[in-house]
Design goal:
Elements lengths: L5 H7 L17 H14 L4 H13 L18 H14 L2 H20 L2 E2 L15 E2 L3
Antiparallel strand pairs: 1-2
Length: 138
């Protein structure tokens, strides 16, 4: 059986796309950033995790003891939807990258829990996603 040429082997290997400018997620290792880029290339769009993290951080930058809710609920725009995307990316990452990204998200989650109140009634759709089981507005 003939062996493959080295160029053919390199061609089969995954390589990140070079066209869109990628945002660097601060606080994680370069291996984690590479794993996130690979998951984004396979399942999402470029900079999906970065934009979700920024959306989540922007919500937590609000002043005050409790977080204010929006007057209108727009699917895909709220911070809970960004946290949902991060959770789905975490399930697709390798173990080391998952731990690294979870370490970055843990203080944000603690702050979110501290500044929200438990929702009295929630649907089965929110089961397993604790961020949908919290109310921001009082």
């Amino acid at each position: 059986m003939p062996r493959k040429r080295p160029t053919a082997l390199r061609r089969e290997r995954w390589a990140p796309a070079r066209f869109p400018p990628f945002r660097r997620i601060a606080g994680v290792s370069s291996l984690t950033r590479a794993a996130i880029r690979r998951v984004e290339d396979e399942c999402y769009w470029p900079n999906a995790v970065w934009s979700s993290l920024e959306q989540y951080k922007l919500l937590l930058r609000q002043p005050g003891r409790y977080l204010n809710g929006d007057e209108s609920s727009s699917p895909g725009i709220e911070a809970e939807d960004g946290r949902d995307l991060i959770a789905s990316v975490l399930t697709r990452l390798p173990r080391g990258a998952r731990r690294d990204l979870e370490r970055l998200i843990a203080p944000l989650d603690k702050d979110f829990v501290r500044r929200t109140v438990p929702r009295l009634s929630w649907t089965d759709w929110a089961a397993g996603r604790w961020w949908y089981q919290r109310d921001r507005e009082l």
